[in-house]
Structure formats: C-alpha cells, structure tokens
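WARN no homologs supplied; continuing
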Amino acid sequence: MQHAVWWQVYPLGFVGAEPQALAPDEDTRHRLPALAPWLEYLQELGASGLLLGPVFDSATHGYDTTDFHRIDRRLGDEADFAGLVTAAHERGIRVMLDGVFNHVGRDFPVFQAALTEGPDSAAAQWFRMSWPQTGDAEPDYDHFEGHRQLVTLNHAHPEVADFVVEVMCHWLERGADAWRLDAAYAVPAEFWARVLPRVRERYPDAYIVGEVIHGDYAEYVTASGIDSVTQYELWKAIWSSLNDRNLYELDWTLSRHNVLLEQFAPLTFVGNHDVTRIASKLTDDRLLAHALVLLFTLGGTPSIYAGDEQGFRGIKEEREGGDDAIRPAFPADPGQLSSLGRPLFVLHQELIGMRRRHPWLHRAQTHIEQLANEQLVYTVRLGDNALVVALNLADQPVSVPAPQATGIVCGDAVLVSAGASASVNLPARGWVVLSA
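OK structure emitted
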C-alpha cells in the first residue's frame, strides 16, 4: 500500500456537481460511474491508487459533512460507489477516502439535536458549546478556522471516538483501502491513538494518512499512530526554490525530510485540491519538469492531483468560491483532453515508470553532492541501491560532478565519464537521473 503512487480526484468538482446539496425532492445524480473511464487513464499514467476527495453527504463543498454513511446524492448512491471500487480493484487500483473527522456541517443531525435539546442533552456532549444564560439566542460553539458552518467535534467525548471508529470500519468493509484524515493537524493526536487501534483490529492493512500542514510531523505520527502525513514543507520548498532559483532552501528542507524518512514515508506532492496548481505556482513553467523530478526521486509516497499531469492551471484565492479554479469539471473521458497536455503526461509516465522500477525510493535518503543557487546534484540511496540526480535551473549549460554515476536513466544530458570521478553536462534548465 505505501508503495502506491496516488492520483487524487476532487469528485464534486470532477463531475461538475451542483455547488449545493440537492433538495429532498430532487432525484439522485448518478455521477460516480463517470470516474470509471478514468481508471484506465490512471493506469496508463502509471499510478496505482485513487485518492478520492469527499464523497459523503454534505451541504456544499464536501467538507461540511451531514451524513457519513451516505454517498452524496450529487454523486450517486452506495451502489455507484461499490461499482467504482470494484472496477478499481479489478485493475489493481487501491481506493483512499477522505474522512472529515475534525468537524461536521451544521446540518449534521447530532448538532441539530444539540441545538434543539439543549446543554444537558447527550447530543450537546459531542461539541464544545457555550450556552447563553437567558433568551433564545443560539449557543456559541467551536468551529474550524473561522467557518461557523464547520462545527468542531469534541474529540474528548467517548461517543465521538466510537462514531469515528464505526464510520471508518463501515467504508473499509465496503471496499475502501485507505483513509486520508482531513485537517488532522486540528485533531488531538491522542484521539487517533484511541481510534486507530480499534480500526486496525478489524482492518490491519488499512493505510492512514493525516493532513498535517505545520508542526512536528514526526511527533504527530508517533503520538497518533497514523502511517503518514502530508509533506507540506517539501511542497513549499520545491516551488519556492525553483521560483527564487535558490536551491539552498530545498537543501535545508531535504535534511529535515531525511529525518522524517527514518521514521515513516511522508505523502509527497506538488499539487492538491487546496493549493494553487503547480503550473500556475511556478513563475517559469520551463522548470515544471524539475519539480516532477524531485517529486518522483525523493523518498515518500507520491500523490498527483488530477489535471497536474496535463499542465492544468488554476489559482487558489482566499474568498468564497476561491477553490473553484483548482477544482474544475473534467471531460467525460480522457480522449477529450487537449493534446497540449500530452508531453507533460508522457513525462509523468517516464518518471513514474522509473520510480516503479526502483521501489526502494520509497524510503531512500538524500545526500547532497553539489549545491549552488541554480544547480543541485544529489544521490538518493537505500542500502546498496542508489541513483544520482542533477538539476540545472540556469539559462546556460553547465558541467557538474555526478559521483559514482554509471549511465543515464532518464533526462537530457551527456555523461562525460563514469565512476567516482564522473561528471555530466546539463543543458540550460536541464535535468538528469543517473544510475549509480
């Protein structure tokens, strides 16, 4: 499982679903089957896992869940979900679900019961609420990052833990292979330390990755018992170093990344459903290949945000609807994609193929061989296995050392010599991966 390359889809956007939940009298929209034609595309890309964004009933964008046991009617029903999972598994594709267990939508039935039944009710214990002394004013309550429509759960309450265990097992029983824990950084690690052992009693092979943006990643993994966290530090260092042509920043982050790899394999990415697309984030799109080389040669579990492999563009804005540009609808089938994205898709195939031929990269550590603002040479190594990677950001060709290199695996360069004194000639803005 942890050797997967994930292809992440935001389903509500992908299928062009309505921005608001359907009214009770509206017919269910059976859109999940529209993902089935993309499974072969996922395989052609070289990925082996489908990371689905929210698929459960919600009021709007999927992260304000109202029913954790029902597929969002804008997407379909449980039969549609079962069909998608079966089709994925028949192709050897694993399926990861997005679990929003830090908060719920205001229409979540237990929250509505708490508002109706008052502070002494069993439902009220599920949330952290401050009740007015007099009058009919609505109680205040903890909510997620200023969004009152996202009601924070009381993770100290045993019934909340029981509920999350039951939900996770419910969908693992129905074929899911893994869970992404949304906003895990906002949930006390000890909550997961209570929940996950109970889940793993029934599903020991389930892969659990937490969304953690900041803080001590290693400490959170240790305290929570999750398998992995999202590597936002590396994401930032990749695009920032390329934009500033300052690879010293990346060098600093790689040293921290090495420490993490001693304990676990982080989920690595250069794009996801919450950030500006990498093709828009980079100020020089001629360096997009360098970002991908880093993603697929460094240790960790790579994830590709659907559309990034085609060079989709989109800028996230901090406003209502500011995610729309990075969560667009896709065509009915891959054959309708623009041919302009094909060269980048082929590059993804090449790099993913290289990674799958070297599965040890999953936990490989990075050793810097040469570093300058616009050049970086590093060896990735695990035991007796090694590759040498050289990057040139400059607008001029350069010659750099490539110690122990014996041949070119992929990339555009000339290996001048082999062995301990090997060097390589890189073209302007060139890159190469070398055997060693």
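The mean pLDDT is 96.
OK
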